[in-house]
Amino acid sequence: MAAPLKHWRSWSPFRLDALGLLTMLGADEMSREIGSLSANTLVSWMSLLGGNVVPSDAFVAPLHGYTLYNISDAIQSTSLAGWFSRWLLAQHPSQNTSLFVWSTRSYPRHHGHRALAIGTIVNTCILALSLLVGDYYGLASALCMDFGIIIRAYLVAQNRDAIDRAAADTSIHSHDLVRTFIILANGKATTVIAPRNVVVNCFLSTPKIAHPTFYAIARAMGWFAFVGLIVTVGQAVLVVQIAIIIVTVSATVLTAFGIGTVGDGVGKSLQVARSEHPNRHGRRGEAYAMLHLNKEEEDTMIDWALFPQRRNQNWWNQYRTYKAIDSKIIDVFEDSATEEKTLKASSFRGSTLTEEKSAATTAKVQELKTE
């Protein structure tokens, strides 16, 4: 049976040479986004540029230039798990004032199947187009692309499962919350509060894959799919090439900008809440004030050279000012929360009173910030 759209094979107003090399672009961005292990509800099952970062396992390799200060346990580490350092980068934290609080879920999280449905429809359309045109190179390209997507999903899922197991392990370290201060490779700093076992087992150590042999076989198969795509896509007819480019580039752009990315946790058991300090000047002293350090912890910060010596009176006076304002801001929010509950319980005009109270709270915070 002749291909219904066979005449499209001769449509070639221009040529796309060395098209296979296009699939290697965007490797750094895809390593960051895929390596963060965050789910994407739109394009998790679509082809992406920089496909070589998956079979090479580069998306989980450790990154350099990060330092974690475990203030609660007085431990400093310059070695972070690759997924966690990429996750921090993918969050685009503010300059020094972002706070992330991690915890474990009592029930597993299940993402919807929207990404799988979207990917199935789009990839099926490319396969159908190749068949309708009668382009067997295009068909081979589509099959290699689909196979690479399945391999990527498997490798990412294995790393997420490893994190879930590590987060549930309390055999050595307790689940008590610890305060950490992390300086990123780009110079930004952020505050992270998490259970001790999560910090040690997940943030500082790379969780171990449950089935390393199967994992290695999947990586090898991923290389075959990647090389097969490079070879065949350059031989496909122009209309199929354009379809593959549009789909791949669109999915890559959405991934790079975090559109559709689920940022409330990683895996099935880890969840995270993000907040920003109300006084967002980006000064390091404000970030330190968020930690509510006692004198012993401040001495530890001096030993780590994060704080200057105490004879630097100008810096310490400014730090104490930030600390005092931070305490007042917390008191304002706590009082506001208490009064809001009372208002809602005692008045039918709870929503109006809540709005008025919110405005009053904001005014108080602004007044404290301008003192």
Written overview of the protein:
There is one protein chain. This protein has 371 residues and is α+β, with helices and mostly antiparallel strands. 51% of the residues lie in helices and 10% in strands. A hairpin with a 4-residue loop joins strand 1 and strand 2. The longest helix is centred in the C-terminal third of the chain and has 34 residues. About 9% of the residues have low confidence. Keywords: Membrane, Signal, Transmembrane, Transmembrane helix.
Helices and strands in order:
Layout: H1 27-35, E1 67-70, E2 75-77, H2 82-90, E3 98-104, H3 114-133, H4 136-168, E4 177-183, E5 189-195, H5 196-203, H6 212-233, H7 238-256, E6 265-266, E7 270-276, H8 284-290, H9 295-303, H10 313-346, H11 350-369
Parallel strand pairs: 3-5
Antiparallel strand pairs: 1-2, 1-4, 3-7, 4-5, 6-7
Signal peptide: 1-27
Region (Disordered): 346-371
Transmembrane segments: 115-133, 139-157, 213-232, 238-259
Number of strands: 7
Spatial separation of the terminal alpha carbons: 82 Å
**Sequence stretches where pLDDT stays below 50 over 5 or more residues:** 328-362
Principal-axis shape equals: elongated
The count of helical stretches stands at 11
Strand line-up in the sheet with most strands: 2-1-4-5-3-7-6
SS content category:
alpha+beta
Q: Kindly provide the radius of gyration, computed on alpha-carbon positions and rounded to a whole number of angstroms.
A: 26 Å
Mean pLDDT: 81
The percentage helix is: 40-55%
**Biggest sheet overview:** 7 strands, mixed
Taken as a percent bin, the fraction of beta residues is 5-15%
User: Would you list the SSEs in sequence order as H and E?
Assistant: HEEHEHHEEHHHEEHHHH
